[in-house]
Amino acid sequence: MRNRVRGSMLALALVAPLALAACGGTETAESAESAQGSDAEGQEFARVVNVEVDAVQPRPFVEQIRLTAVVRADRDVQLSAEEAGVVAEVLAEKGRWIDEGAPIVRLNAEVLRAQVEQARARADLASQTWERRKRLWEEDQVGSEIAYLEARYAAEETAATLRSLEERLSRMTIRAPFTGILEDRMVEVGSMVSPGQAVARIVDRTPVKIAAGVPERYAADVETGADAVVTFDVFPGEVYEAPISYVGSTVDAQSRTFPIEVRMENPGGVIKPEMVANVAVERRSLDEALVVPQDALVRVADGYVVFVVEDEGGRTVARARAVELGIRQRDQVVVESGLQPGDQIVVVGQKSVASGDRVNVVAERDAA
């Protein structure tokens, strides 16, 4: 009997705290819900997002075609021997500046020089014989016409032979065809060379040519005389401007590009052939355009929006504006509709706001 009374009393002791906790829990939830819906003054609570903004103003905008190019020498020639012979003398060293017509290599020409002297003697004899035959035949009518013609032919033939041998003798000295740098020399004294064998290489890099391939979709936008801006990664801060000097008339079947060249000066010769260059060619320009950073755009289901900061009843809020986009250049995009000059768009924090959110402008970028 005592055990039954004790069990009943224990059950009542356990149930009473649970009932009190249930009543108290309802009051606590209602208090928490009320606190979330209002602040200390009973006003509606709204989150505030910190953002940075940029004022959109009309400005010029240029769309450029950006290409990777390679530097070519204005003239790069490999000289070859025109006559056979042994190198008797080397007259220029590699890496030296050499003037047009200056000798580079001289071949042994003793045999050919003797042939020239022999031909000159024959030419002199034939010339004197012709002069006498001509005078006797034309003035005194002495001799025969056939002897007269044979003398003239002999004089002309020996003179031509002499000129040919003299030309060959002059080719025994290999000379620079233009002013430039002697980039390489392939022979030394004692080397035996034959006609067509490479002897030296001369490079003229003042000016230079910047060669690039333009995608065929820009065929209607690039023409000779258009301005181009050239930069080099190895020369940071250096910018060169020059017109396009050549535009190819055909498209390469493999790369689907057509060639262009920009011929530009090379002050000090610091630009070397085969360097990699960056070329920017103007495609079109706008005098006034509303331009926004690429990062300010937010992709939505039917296009893009930007968030514009507006004042509504003393509160600063962000509103989404659908925009139509135009041409792009790097990280800048032209907005064709959806914005007005002076609109302040969110450029930092746009991924964290929704239309109608209150915002706190912590920084304003320079509109330029």
User: Which stretches are low in confidence, meaning pLDDT under 50 for 5 or more residues running?
Assistant: 1-43
Spatial separation of the terminal alpha carbons:
94 Å
**Share in helix:** 25-40%
CATH class of the domain at 48-61 and 287-365: Mainly Beta
Number of helices: 3
Task: State the order of secondary-structure elements, H for helix, E for strand.
Answer: HEEEEEHHEEEEEEEEEEEEEE
Specify the CATH architecture of the domain at 48-61 and 287-365: Beta Barrel
Mean pLDDT: 84
* Rg over alpha carbons: 45 Å
| Secondary structure tally: strands | 19
At the fold tier of CATH, the topology name of the domain at 48-61 and 287-365 is conserved putative lor/sdh protein from methanococcus maripaludis s2 fold
Written account of the structure:
- The protein is of the alpha+beta class.
- The protein contains 3 helices and 19 strands.
- The chain has helices at 2-37, 110-140, 145-170; strands spanning 48-55, 59-80, 85-90, 97-98, 103-107, 173-175, 180-185, 192-193, 198-215, 227-231, 239-247, 257-264, 276-293, 298-300, 303-312, 315-329, 332-337, 344-348, 358-365.
- The strands form 3 sheets. Strands 2-9-12-11-10-13 form a 6-stranded antiparallel barrel.
- It starts with a helix and ends with a strand.
Q: Brief overview, please?
A:
The protein is α+β, with helices and mostly antiparallel strands. Helix content is 25%, strand content 43%.
Question: Keyphrases for this structure?
Answer:
alpha+beta; conserved putative lor/sdh protein from methanococcus maripaludis s2 fold; 368 residues; 43% strand; disordered N terminus; four-stranded antiparallel β-sheet; six-stranded antiparallel β-barrel
